[in-house]
Design brief:
Layout lengths: L11 H11 L8 E6 L3 E6 L3 E6 L5 H14 L10 E5 L9 E5 L4 E2 L8 H17 L19 H15 L5 H12 L9 E3 L8 E4 L2 E5 L6 E3 L13 H11 L3 H22 L4 H16 L1
Antiparallel strand pairs: 1-2, 2-3, 3-5, 4-5, 6-8, 7-10, 8-9
Length: about 290
C-alpha cells in the first residue's frame, strides 16, 4: 500500500532493472526485501549491500544529504553507521536518485535483542553526545525538529484532535496534550545548534549480543537545537530513559521540550498513517503509552 501522494511503486523486478542499468557489476547478486519505512523502501543486495529507494521524488533529497555528510561524520562516531557505496541516478526506470549502502548486521532494538536497558540507554547517550560534539563544518541543514516548538502548534493541535477520534477510547489524549502544552510553556531552547540524527527510534538502532552496535538511517540528518533528538527515548523502557537522562545530565526544561517533541511526532504519525501504515501507528501508540506511564 502506498503512503504518500505521487509515491513511486517499487518491487524486485524494478530494482533488478536499476542494478542492471547503473551498476551491472552486482547483477548476479541475490535480491530480496529488507523492510520499508515512511520515507524509503529497502532491498538487501547479496550479503554485503543494501539498496535504499525513496518513496517519492522529493524524498530523494534526504538520501543525497545522507550520502554527502555521512562520510564526514563517521570518523567521529563511536558506533557503526551506514556507508554509502553507490549513488544511483534518476532514469526512465526510476525517476529519483537512490542509494546503495554497506549492509550492517544486527537486530532492531527490542525486548528480544537488548540484554540490559540501562546500558543501552547509556550507550545511546554516548552516541548522541559524540554526534552533538562534531564540528558543524559549515553545514546549513535545517529541519523542523531542530527548531522551536511554537511554529508546530497548529498541526500538532490538529493531530491531537484526530487522535481523540482515533484512539481517545484507549489513550488519555487530554494528558498527552498537557505534555505538549507544558513543552510549549518552556523558554525557547538556549542550547547551541548541533548535528542531529533526527530519528533515533528503535528501528534505527541495531543490536548484537545484547548491545547497541550501530545507528542507521541518517535521512533526517540536520543541524539544529538538540531538544527533539532526545524525544525518541520514550520509545524505550524506563531503565533506558533514566540512564540516558543521567548520562547526558539533561535539565528539566530540556526534558519537557523533548517530551513535547515526542508527543508531536507520535500524534502526527497516528493521524497521517492511520489507514496506510499500521506498523508505524503501533510504534506511535506505544510511545504515547510510555509517555503516559512515565
Amino acid at each position: 500500500m502506498t503512503l504518500h501522494q505521487d509515491e513511486i511503486v517499487v518491487g524486485e523486478p524494478l530494482v533488478r532493472r536499476l542494478i542492471a542499468e547503473q551498476c551491472p557489476q552486482w547483477s548476479g547478486l541475490t535480491l530480496g526485501p529488507a523492510g520499508a519505512g515512511t520515507e524509503n523502501t529497502m532491498f538487501r543486495l547479496g550479503e554485503e549491500l543494501l539498496v535504499r529507494l525513496p518513496r517519492t521524488v522529493e524524498k530523494a533529497d534526504a538520501l543525497c544529504t545522507e550520502r554527502e555528510w555521512l562520510p564526514r561524520l563517521t570518523p567521529y562516531l563511536p558506533l557503526r553507521v551506514p556507508e554509502p557505496v553507490f549513488a544511483g541516478e534518476a532514469s526512465a526506470v526510476f525517476p529519483a536518485q537512490w542509494s546503495v549502502l554497506r549492509w550492517i548486521p544486527g537486530a532492531e532494538a527490542g525486548v528480544d535483542s537488548v540484554r540490559d536497558w540501562g546500558r543501552f540507554g547509556t550507550d545511546l547517550a554516548g552516541f548522541v553526545r559524540a554526534l552533538h560534539r562534531v564540528d558543524l563544518m559549515g553545514a546549513q541543514l535545517s529541519w523542523y525538529r531542530g527548531g522551536d516548538l511554537a511554529p508546530c502548534d497548529g498541526w500538532v493541535s490538529d493531530a491531537l484532535a484526530s487522535c481523540r477520534r482515533l484512539v481517545g477510547a484507549e489513550l488519555d489524549v487530554d494528558t498527552v496534550e498537557s505534555f505538549w502544552r507544558a513543552g510549549l510553556a518552556q523558554p525557547v531552547s538556549p542550547h547551541p545548534r548541533v548535528w542531529l540524527h533526527g530519528d533515533l527510534k528503535p528501528t534505527n538502532l541495531l543490536v548484537e549480543d545484547g548491545r547497541l552496535v550501530a545507528v542507521i538511517d541518517f535521512g533526517a540528518v540536520s543541524v539544529g537545537r538538540p531538544d527533539a533528538e532526545h524525544a525518541t527515548v520514550w520509545d524505550l523502557p524506563s531503565a533506558a530513559r533514566e540512564a540516558y537522562w543521567n548520562t547526558l545530565s539533561l535539565d528539566e526544561a530540556t526534558w519537557l521540550r523533548a517530551r513535547a517533541w515526542a508527543v508531536a511526532v507520535a500524534v502526527s504519525g497516528i493521524a497521517y498513517y492511520w489507514d496506510t501504515f499500521p506498523a508505524f501507528v503501533t510504534e506511535c501508540r506505544t510511545r504515547l503509552a510510555h509517555l503516559l506511564s512515565s
